[in-house]
Amino acid sequence: MGIKEHVQAVQAKIEAASLAAGRDPKEVTLCAATKVQTDDTIRAAIAAGIQVCGENRVQELTAHLEADAYAGARVHFIGHLQTNKVKQVVGKVELIHSVDSERLLRAIDAQADKLGIRQDILLEVNIAREESKGGCLPEEVPALAELAQSLGHLRLRGLMAIPPISPEPGANRPYFAAMRQLFVDIREKMSDNQTDMDCLSMGMSGDYEDAIREGATLVRVGTALFGPRPPMGAAR
Fold this sequence. Notes:
Layout lengths: L2 H18 L8 E5 L5 H9 L4 E4 L2 H9 L7 E4 L17 E5 L2 H14 L3 E7 L15 H10 L3 E8 L11 H17 L9 E3 L6 H6 L4 E4 L1 H4 L10
Parallel strand pairs: 1-2, 1-8, 2-3, 3-4, 4-5, 5-6, 6-7
């Protein structure tokens, strides 16, 4: 299958999973994870119907922006963001998914202030408490959400998580369910920000259907759209 057929297949599975959960498929956004993809592949995905591209690395984001590869789509940053790279991302993307510390919150807010904009963000949660992964712990979310709400150049849009990789079908549903409950709890506490809190970003190529069944509003899909990733440095 070509990219168009892959996009259509993923969209069909999103629709089926949404309907099976009693949800409107329009509630779920497909974000194409374009890590290590070429400019032409990204353009082909957008031509095939992709409306949101998610980039993992600042260097690739910058190169694709310079090549205008994302034309016709919205751009998110979904990878780990270091504070020294904030200037290259803030104001360049619609949404930053991977905010997990007070230091990063303040750095993004300061850069957005310099640009005179309000940057949309998600808080990344290490829902499985994996030492090898980024993200704040679930119990740290309330304080970070409160801080985000207090900073004048940020808009907290919701939460993001990357559960453990598991070959077992359905193994991540408990993590997705826990994220959904955390999202609901935090949203209820954000009295001044409830209408902005509308994004629960979870689920990737191997488990996005389960994530949708548990309440995801955005899924980040790469391999199911593009096939196995090309080697690092292959993108042009």
